[in-house]
Amino acid sequence: xxxxILDYPLLAxxxxxxxxxxxxxxxxxxxxxxxxxxxxKSVSQSxxxxxxxxxxIELTVALHYVYNTPFDRLIWDVGxxxxxxxxxxxxxxRMPTIxxxxxxxxxxxxxxxEYDTLTVGHSSTSISAALGMAIAAKAEQKNRKVVxxxxxxxxxxxxxxxxLNHAGEVKPDMLVILNDNEMSISExxxxxxxxxxxxxxxxxYTSLREGGKKILSGTPLHELASRAEEHFKGMVTPGTxxxxxxxxxxxxxxxxxxxxxxxxxxxxxxxxxxQLLHVVTKKGKGYAPAEQDPIGYHAVxxxxxNSQGTPAKKAGKPNFSNIFGNWVCDMAALDPKLQAIxxxxxxxxxxxxxxxxxxxxxxxxxxxxxxxxxLAAGMAIDGLKPVVAIYSSFxxxxxxxxxxxxxxxxxxxxxxIDRAGIVGADGATHQGAFDLSYMRAIxxxxxxxxxxxxxxxxxxxxxxxxxxxxxxxxxRGYANGTEAQNNMTLLPxxxxxxxxxxxxIAILAFGPLLHQAIAAAETLDATLVDMRFVKxxxxxLLQQLATHHxxxxxxEDNAIAGGAxxxxxxxxxxxxxxxxxxxxxxxxxxxxxGSQEELYxxxxxxxxxxxxxxxxxxxPQSA
Length: 623
Prior knowledge:
alpha/beta; seven-stranded mixed β-sheet; 41% helix; globular
């Protein structure tokens, strides 16, 4: 249930940015207070990303107040910070549905709103897209403005620097806002800094600078004046790096002072060329528990906003991420060559304990997946044993490095691929739908898909001991709650495990969907096989099953196109085996958001759906 809008009189008047722009500027601070409280109460009732949005309240208000959105382009990087943007762009009353099946998208989405200029979910894309839009705006000649908002974490990715470098060369009219929520604001952001922000973005300074350039152009004094300007700004701002890339740097300014934000952004809107505004915010601003623990409050389930401390997580058996976190610590104790690498996913990949126990062997490379993969390659070349903990949808960003820097050279790198398959509420940008397809085509890769938590631990050990690149891909959450044994056992590479012996039909399951197929196998008296290995396949099994089975059903939580089922199809064709083949998996579409259970049911990959689809295949309706 959405909070009662009658409790928020100013917010009620700002259902759209056009209405927001009708409010007097002196009321924006009160509006920001109402928006922050509305967000707190809304997310506490519905769950979702939380702390980042609290930190961008005033910035969101200022941007929509100054810019003529949606005509002017506003691009949010990642999208965790965009809940206030959704509230101010006509979606306020639907906030309780966010991340739920048929509800609001978890991130900005072009299909959802004309105010969502770019569909996002992965980081560091905003500046590149904004540059493209700025180039288009110049060609269009309608005075369309372009703004990209990027967080201090997202700007660590190489793609962001590539875009900054190119923008400095092209010199388009565009504004990049660096939302810095890590820097202290007590000294750098105060009255003096607000003064310089207004001075450096104002008409007097701009006119003086541009006029001076024209007068001094072509004279020896031009270079001297440019250096003098750089030194003047360098005395009061940390923006030399951005200036060297060709951006006019302003800031840092207090991102929670909405009046200063509006004044500065309004000034910068008129400036020509690439501009960068450095805004300092506090993640979780206005809600003390989130300010004290912004990581714990980054994304939350339902919670009581009157309580203190991080929302309690449900206790239970270890999930797949926990299995990896425990295994990597145990393995590190046995092998001093083990090194753990993650691209800014320490908590998500459960590397917190490892980072504290083995700080000299832990490398968080920030949001730089390409670098993470090639860093591992360099380690492996000189005898270390790197383990790259990475989400399935994030490894996509390091694909060339996986091929060129690791597999081509057959290096000993283990990829622990978390969030494979359906992840649920984060939606299409985060579903781990493609890893089997994009890895299976790469020579030298060993690819494993555990059906339960204990098998995951043994596969991690098997992959670690394997000579060459290996991948273990496992889902978000749990399989069937199997407890992982403390031992570590090498699995015979390429060998499957028969769970149930039947006849006529054989269900070949790759990964945790095995447990959804048990009921179907019982009902159909079918053979059920835990395939374990996607590459290499258990070819002797395929030949053996042909004696008493006419139908093979493959089951995977990966795209059918190019996935494990496709590997079976290719093998059956090469071996000339007389099977009828049914491939069950993710269809050729981007999978929307919803709970894992809801999506598996919708896709026909729950127990009932698997049984129904096999029955329809083996006993087709007569025409």
